Structures are given as structure tokens and as C-alpha cells.
Write the C-alpha cells for this entry.
Amino acid sequence: MASVVRLLAVFLRVGILNELQYRTNLYVQLFRSSLSLVTGLAGLGVVFSHTQTLAGWSPPELLAILGVYLVVSGVLRFAIQPAMERLMEDVRNGTLDYILTKPEDSLVLVSVRAVEVWRLADVVLGSVVIGAAVSQMHDRIDAWQVAGFVIALVAAATTVYSFLLILTTLSFWFVRLENILVIFQSMYEAGKWPVDIYPAWLRGALTFLVPVAFATTVPAQALAGRLTPVALAGAVALSASLFTAARYFWSVGLRRYAGASA
Amino acid sequence: MTEWVDMYRAQLATTFATQLQYRAVLVIWLLGLILSPVISLVVWMTVATSGGGQAGGFTAPAFAAYFLALMVVNHLTFTWIAWEFEYRVRNGQLSGLLLRPTDPIHIDIAANVTYKTITLVIVIPTVIVLGAVFEPAIEITPVTIFAFIPALALAAVLRFLVEYILAMVAFWTTRVSAINDLYYVPLFFFSGQLVPLSLLPDTVRLIGLALPFRWMLSFPVEVVLGRVQPDDLITGYVAQIGWIVIALASRVVIWRAGLRRYAAVGA
């Protein structure tokens, strides 16, 4: 675990140094993040000009979902997606060799080595939105709710990571797959709203086929104090088992990898 | 005239063959085009249900009809020219196209037409299935169809031109994606993708009236749903044509200026 943190810190530092050369990117990213925030807020505004609650969710609770959506998508684009894109490219070009010859866990290396630092702007903005949402909720929030929220958020990030790792690992068999990540992106859009509003078949797909429900709805439920301990345990169990499965699948896929010269 | 027919026949055949090569990309674009209206549809059906059966004059089945019609119109009018054009300018691919005796815009028109023809094979069954699921209240008469076709064609032309003009920003900057984002936000609100325009707050709706976005998408949708009065129909066509004229003129001016700039880079 210590080595994971150390490696992440090293790559993060390199990533920041790299990005500091292109400072305009920060402003471009801030601009884009604010646009997506404005779109989200205006959407909520229009919806709540016609109703008091949406499928039992009050305005601050939906605001919390929007915040979680921004945080998770920030994490996704900051570290997970760049790493997966790099990995696919390396498998295609055979350059994964360079990773495999290093004396560290190859999965850890591929997962932390590519970061897009400015994407953290979404995480910051999302956190502000969550803070604003919490301050507008009627009941005082207690320590259990905060703990549940943090656990659910970690589980959400783990679930998304594991899910994308499984998809990416498929590239050991099917070489050209970069579009599969785009599919996830467009499915993730659905996570801006609570999954309870979707009809059963779509809710099922967004829960078990593509884990969007766990990524945004569940943490927001925790914050709103509506998540039962059983549901939280379920989310944690799912993320743990998905993580284990992804790790196992990775080792299977790695055996398929032929390298550049083989 | 026969030259043009031959040229288009050749372009259509080429783009048809090219696009069938990249079937996965076709499906991915489609997924976004289908999912986004479904999300809005579900949100507003939920609003209508919790608001005692209706919101702003739309019942849940009326919302379903609106967003399914919007899905089809959005599919038939959207373009991907901004990405394509940026790629061309960045790679210098545009240079080769400029050597041809016809304006490259005709390649893009042909590609647009073939893409839509190919993907209708997926879009139509999808809309039928979604129609069975969401049970829209829609009554299509020959009159609405007759009024709808010109509205749709004008909307497609206008949206294509506007997005083409936007794509030409690539001549001046390589950061096209940020400018695209800036365009998609008002498009999303003012073209009726988030919600039927009549449900927007009054001030926002008034701003929308001065912009071209509604003529690119929501107008044909409202026409096919029979929500447009005969008088407004004529005004609508006129507004669409007016915007098209403005867009055509801007396209010519910006295209010339852009080409000078492009040559100056030495690409």
C-alpha cells in the first residue's frame, strides 16, 4: 500500500510539472468545468420551477447528486481514464513491455502513471457544490452520515475504476477498443439524476450492467441520510468483489499479452 | 447541372463505403444521441407525474412524444463537423481537399446524408421500441407531416451551416473543443433539448427568441406534434430562411478569411 502511495505521489509530481508548462490548459479546464456546473445548475433550476420534489428527492438532495457527479467524473478524468487510454495504446503498440520489466506491481504502475492534473478542478467544484447542498438540507448532518458518505464515495471510485479496468483489459483480446470508454462516458451522463426516476429496465442496466447508480446515487443517498447500512454494505461488497475480479482478470489478460517482439 | 449530379453521386458512394468501415464509431455516436433525450424524457415524465399529471401543459405521454420526436430530429440535424474540421486543419489534410475542383463542403454534405441514411436503420427501430415503452401521445396527420418536412429540411441546413461556421474557428485556434463546449450549452437549453421551450422561465425564453437555436431543432419537433398554429408556421419558415441566409453569407466570408490564414501558416 505504501508503495502505491509513493508511486502515485511521484507520478502526480511529474504530471504537475508537465502541466505547468501549459498553463493555459488550467484556464481552459476551469472554463469547461464551470460550463458543466452552470448547465447542471440551470437544468435543476428549470426542473424545480415546475415541481417541489423529483421522485422524493428535494432540491438540496439533487444538488448533492450533481456535486457527487462532478467529483466522481473529476476523479475519472484525472486519473482513471488517462491511465486506461495509455494502457490500451501500450497493448496495441507492444510498449507495455517497458512496464512489465519494472520491479513493481504492473497493475499499480499502469493505474497511476498517467494523470491529467487540471481535471481536479471538477473535484474542487463538485466539493463546493456538495458543501452548498449540505448547508441547505433541513436536518443537521451527523458523523455517521459523513462517514457513510465517505465510504460510499470511496466505493464509488473503486467500482468505476474496476469496471473500466475490466473493459480495458479486454484489449488484450480485441486490440482496437478505445471507443468502449466513450460508451461509458455517455452512460455516465445518466448519473446526473437519481436512478430511482428511471424505469425498472433502465435502472437495472444502470445498476448492474454499467455501475452508474453506485457512482452517484448511492453516495448522495448517504449524504441525505437515506442510505440503509445494508445498502451501504452492499455497495462496499460490490466494489470489493468487482475490484478483486478486475485484478484477477488483469492477470489472465496479461498472460495473453504477446509483447512487441514476440 | 449533370456535373453536380455526378459529383454528388460519387461523393455519396465514397462516403457510404467509408462509413460502413467504421461501424463501431457509428454506434457510439448513436448511443449519445439516444441516451440524452431519454434522460430528459424520464426526468420530465417524473416531474409531470409528481405535479399531478402535468407540468406546463405537458402530460407524461406528451413529454414522451416530445422527446421521442426530438430524438429523431436531433439525429437528422446533428453534425460532427467541428471535430472533423479541426482534425483536417491540424493534419494538413485540408490541403489535399483544396486541390479538388469543388468546395470541400460538398464532401461534408454527402457524408452527413449517408451517415443519416445508414443510421436510420438503427434509429427507427429504437424509436419504435422506446415508443412501446414510454407510450407517447402523438397523432400524426398528413397535414403535420406536410408542414414538418420543410421545417426539418430548413433546420438541418441551418444547423449544418452554423456548426460549419463554428468548425472554421480551427483556422485561428487549435482549442476548438473549448469553443464547442461553449456552443453546446446554449444549444442544449435554447433548442429544446432540456425541456420544451414553453416550459422555460419567461426571461430565458425571450432571450431564446433572438437566437437561432430553436430553429435548428425544436421548431420541427413542435410542428410534427401539431403544437404550432398556421400563422406561426409561416413566421417560422421565414425565420429559418432568414437565419440560413445570414449563415450562408457568414460562411462565405469566414471561409475566405480562414483560407488566407491557413495558407499563411504554410501547412
